[in-house]
Amino acid sequence: MNIHEYQAKALLKSYGAPVADGVAILTKDEVDAAVAKLPGPLYVVKSQIHAGGRGKGKFKELGPDAKGGVRLAKSADEVKAFVDEMLGNTLVTKQTGPAGKQVNRLYIEDGADIDRELYCSLLVDRTVGRVAFVVSTEGGMDIETVAEETPEKIVTVAIDPDTGVTASDVKTLCEALKLEGDAAKDAERLFPILYKAFVEKDMSLLEINPLIVMENGRLRVLDAKCSFDGNALFRHDDVRALRDTTEEDAKEIEASKYDLAYVALDGNIGCMVNGAGLAMATMDIIKLYGAEPANFLDVGGGASKEKVTAAFKIITADPAVKGILVNIFGGIMRCDVIAEGVIAAVKEVGLKVPLVVRLEGTNVELGKKIINESGLNVISADDLDDAAQKIVSAVKEA
Ligand code: ADP
Ligand code: MG
Questions:
Q1: Is 333 labelled as part of a ligand binding site?
Q2: Is residue 242 lining ligand 1, measured as CB closer than 6 Å?
Q3: Residue 223 Cα, ligand 1 centroid: separation in angstroms?
Q4: Where does substrate bind (predicted)?
Q5: Which atom of ligand 1 is closest in space to residue 20's alpha carbon?
Q6: Is 140 annotated as a binding residue?
């Protein structure tokens, strides 16, 4: 689960991280009160969407010459003018895709005098099984570009869970970021704070880009992206309360209600599969035969008929879906349950696109019988290869 920048900053502030004063607003009426709370005279108006690259982003409605999604304002009047322009409009950034995202919240923040912009993130480094800091002096820009062009400028420091962030870790990080004096002192406090917040809140990613050295030599968290491990959300009511479903895919929200592992994708073949590995293989083989999957969907091991019905409805509700492939290996899952779920869903929502079903495993004969006797127009397939070829050609012919 992701949260907005202003929420991430409030969280980090509660741990003692140096964060600027700021106020989030949802409507234009709140601007005056927000500005009155800030020291001025420099303000920054920041679009709050769950995507990065906002500074260089463009508003769809405002044309190519208008300013981006993060704007520096030199007076309260300028803040107001920016809020008028930005709120409610659609911001397109490198990370939103061409459709962009509507800006429903703005964060008005105290402007900082920046000397240097650094990059600092924490993530779970699976190769060493530890939380690791990834830092670079090249902050403010795309870290992917830095990784590609100047990988030597990225330094990774994995933290031993037994000790937490040690003095030696801090020294390595400060050297990598060329931090001295007050900035190094701030860093000595900041790095353990970030690590503590990351571990305590079960984050999967905390990215501060940029972390800045201000002209007065002090450090400040200027941007914050924070993602949480969905499997640990049950023990963090405070984090769950920060969820903004307007930022999420409606189909994914619906799927999460039924505990389905679902990710929307750009293709046109809807997939209903059990098991993450089989789901990945199904997506791969669809691509191999020249088409693109519309989603990743793992209905799970012990899915009920209701769950299968919900899954099928989510797939058919997507107008981009031009064909559906049901690929089930019945181990714990029984093929007859899948068959009943599919039929129940089709009866409810209808079937306007070709459907290929491949069943194998427990109760496979019963499953096939249920489908064959249902009178539905289902193309049956014998194995994964056969199934993928059949759905790809059915979609191409349609
Ligand atoms: P994004 O990464 O989505 O583009 P950032 O929060 O990183 O958004 O902002 C983009 C740039 O805007 C930063 O790299 C920084 O140069 C500038 N900026 C952001 N917030 C402030 C601030 N409070 N004061 C001064 N400059 C800022
Ligand atoms: Mg940024």
A1: yes
A2: no
A3: 6
A4: 274, 331-333
A5: 23
A6: no
Banded model confidence at residue 103, pLDDT cuts 50, 70, 90 = very high
Handedness of CA 185, 122, 210, 241 (dihedral sign): negative
As a whole-number percent, the residues of the chain with pLDDT over 90 amount to 76
Q: How far is the CA of 222 from the centre of ligand 1 (A)?
A: 6
- Euclidean distance between CA atoms 157 and 194, whole angstroms: 14
Report CA(115)–ligand 1 centroid distance (Å). Answer: 13
pLDDT digits over 214-265, tens only?
999 999 999 999 999 989 999 999 999 999 988 988 888 888 888 888 998 9
Atom of ligand 1 nearest to the CA of 113: 25
- 261-306 pLDDT per residue, tens: 899 898 999 999 988 999 999 999 999 999 999 999 998 877 777 8
Q: Is 57 near ligand 1, meaning CB less than 6 Å away?
A: no
Band (pLDDT 50/70/90 cuts) for residue 330 is confident
Residue 241's pLDDT is 96
Domains and CATH numbers, the chain: 21-110 (3.30.1490.20), 114-240 (3.30.470.20), 250-397 (3.40.50.261)
Torsion from C-alpha of 336, 338, 342, 345, nearest 10 degrees: 110
Take atom 9 of ligand 1 and give the residue whose Cα is closest: 55
For the whole prediction, is pTM greater than 0.85?
no
Minimum CA distance residue for ligand 1 atom 11 = 55
d(CA 24, CA 31): 9
Residue 122 beta carbon below 6 angstroms from any ligand 1 atom: no
- Is 16 annotated as belonging to a binding site? no
Bridge-based pairing of strands 114-125 and 203-214 is: antiparallel
Arithmetic mean of pLDDT, 113-140? 97
Higher pLDDT, 191 or 331: 191
Q: Is 365 within any annotated ligand binding site?
A: no
CA nearest neighbour of 106 among 29, 208, 39, 41: 29
SS3 content of the chain, % helix, strand, coil (to 5): 40, 25, 35
| Six-digit token string for 390 | 């059949």
